[in-house]
Amino acid sequence: MPRSVNVVAARQRRKKILKETRGYFGRRKNVWTVAKNAYEKGLQYQYRDRKTKKRNFRGLWIQRINAGVREHGMSYSQFMGLINKKGITLNRKTLADLAMNNPRAFEAVVKAVKK
Predict the structure, then answer these.
(1) Residues 90, 69: contact at Cβ < 8 Å?
(2) Largest CA distance in the chain
(3) 40 φ, ψ to 5°?
(4) Is the pTM above the cut of 0.85?
(5) Which domains does the chain have, with CATH numbers?
(6) 57-84 core/surface letters (b: 16 or more CB in 10 A; e: else)
(7) Alpha carbons 76 and 82: distance in angstroms, whole number
(8) 73 in the Ramachandran plot: left (φ > 0), alpha (ψ -120 to 50) or beta?
(9) N or C: at which end does the chain have fewer Cβ atoms within 10 angstroms?
(10) In 2-114, which ranges are E strands?
(11) Distance CA 78, CA 114 (A)
(12) 20-37: b or e for each residue (b if 16 or more CB lie within 10 Å)?
């Protein structure tokens, strides 16, 4: 009896990965083994960089807050210490947005912290 292979399912599996690798450069887009490896590596990078993205954005927010606070004669660490002591519960994302897009509101927060 001949060996039974499910060609339909195997082709669907290959097509799915080759569809995902469309737009890749060179053999990564159309050679099955190269495309499969590139696709799997891409998924690893995707998982890793979801964590890295959070880290990078937190650093960016800290830099923006620091730049906004230095205009008012304080450092970031002093500001964050005082804001926590005063019990103001604005997160870094919101503070950075205020510092960039609404300097008057950020100035009001800094004045409230200084009092």
Answers:
(1) no
(2) 88
(3) -65, -40
(4) no
(5) 7-114 (1.10.1900.20)
(6) eeeebbebbbebbeeeebebeebbebbe
(7) 10
(8) left
(9) N
(10) none
(11) 10
(12) bbeebeeebeeeeeebbe
| Beta carbons of 74 and 67 less than 8 angstroms apart | no
Tell me the mean pLDDT per 10 residues along the chain, length 115.
Answer: 87 96 96 97 97 97 97 96 93 96 96 92
pLDDT score recorded for residue 17? 96
Q: How many CB atoms lie within 10 A of CB 17?
A: 14
Structural tokens at position 31:
């050679």
CB atoms within 10 A of CB 15: 10
